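Task: complex structure prediction.
Instruction: return structure tokens for all chains below.
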Amino acid sequence: DAGVIQSPRHEVTEMGQEVTLRCKPISGHDYLFWYRQTMMRGLELLIYFNNNVPIDDSGMPEDRFSAKMPNASFSTLKIQPSEPRDSAVYFCASSLRQWEQYFGPGTRLTVT
Amino acid sequence: ILNVEQSPQSLHVQEGDSTNFTCSFPSSNFYALHWYRWETAKSPEALFVMTLNGDEKKKGRISATLNTKEGYSYLYIKGSQPEDSATYLCAFSINAGNMLTFGGGTRLMVKP
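Output:
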């Protein structure tokens, strides 16, 4: 398996634009997680899905953030409109049940 | 709010030294404790997942122990090598949903 795949790897956008981050989990994994890494807050969970259903989105910062998982092999994290404070590295991870999580390479987002 | 604390925040050792770090977590409602290794410019990589009090896991020169009654886990590295330089994260979950709360990490630097 190729591991967790994220795209794009880097995204630079202007404030106010819509940003969509994509993730393909490892085949057969039933959990998918979206994390954000910042210097100030470290690695924080935004939302996670179990069998494509959102379970906990309490980490999503505000209504500008939304995430979907239309099928077992694809998820998106959307920010609309984007703001400079959204600049961070966004990781997607997947796992099989409660075991170790496998992280993707991350998307480095810069909002100017 | 779950508080996961790691100490020390950073550690500089010489090649060949053995070292250990601590992860403290709430001892109530424990489900699992994860350790991850995170090299600069890469994504976190799972080392261990432990669920039972007294668990000990080993992978090469790295090992970990778990005490759920008092709420701590130790990670040991025997004979540190420069390639062990990374940030070591622990994460804690309270249920089978695998929703992890991460500590701030211990940054290890091994000098040749």
